[in-house]
UniProtKB/TrEMBL annotation:
Entry's transmembrane regions: none
Protein name according to UniProt: Nuclear transport factor 2 family protein
SnoaL-like domain segment(s): 17-116
A Pfam family assignment: SnoaL_2
Source species: Rhodococcus artemisiae
InterPro entries assigned to the protein according to its UniProt record, in alphabetical order: NTF2-like_dom_sf, SnoaL-like
């Protein structure tokens, strides 16, 4: 690639995924949405109505802002401008803790912005505790 700022390696995508997980843990939603292309889609969980565009994506992630969140990357695979990764999210709200380990699939544009994200999980995968 001629553009030195363009996405050009597996390391670049790995770094973006790490930044994404850090942003999910620390917010705000605008920081997460900034990682997405302007016309990106988020389908979380798979089978739900996709959120389209940065504004809708920021609105989706805004639900996380009131919670204490910890994320841990468990597995990551990168091929071309695609990544699939398994991670743990522990969300604390009040006296309740919810733990889930989704598998996300992301695609990226040449500039390293996420063009789509699909999260594979279902309510049965959520563990709740206090």
């Amino acid at each position: 690639m001629a553009d030195a700022t363009a996405l050009d390696s597996t390391v670049d995508i790995k770094n973006i995924v790490v930044r994404y997980l850090e942003a999910v843990a620390t917010g705000p939603a605008a920081d997460i949405a900034a990682l997405y292309a302007p016309d990106a889609t988020v389908e979380d969980p798979v089978g739900s109505e996709p959120h389209r565009g940065r504004e809708a994506i920021a609105q989706f992630y805004s639900a996380l802002e009131a919670a204490e969140i910890d994320t841990t990357l468990l597995h990551l695979r990168v091929a071309e401008r695609n990544a699939t990764f398994h991670f743990r999210v522990v969300t604390k709200t009040g006296d309740q803790t919810i733990t889930i380990e989704p598998i996300d699939v992301m695609t990226f544009d040449p500039d390293g912005l996420i063009t789509s994200m699909r999260a594979f999980w279902s309510p049965e995968d959520m563990l709740t505790g206090q």
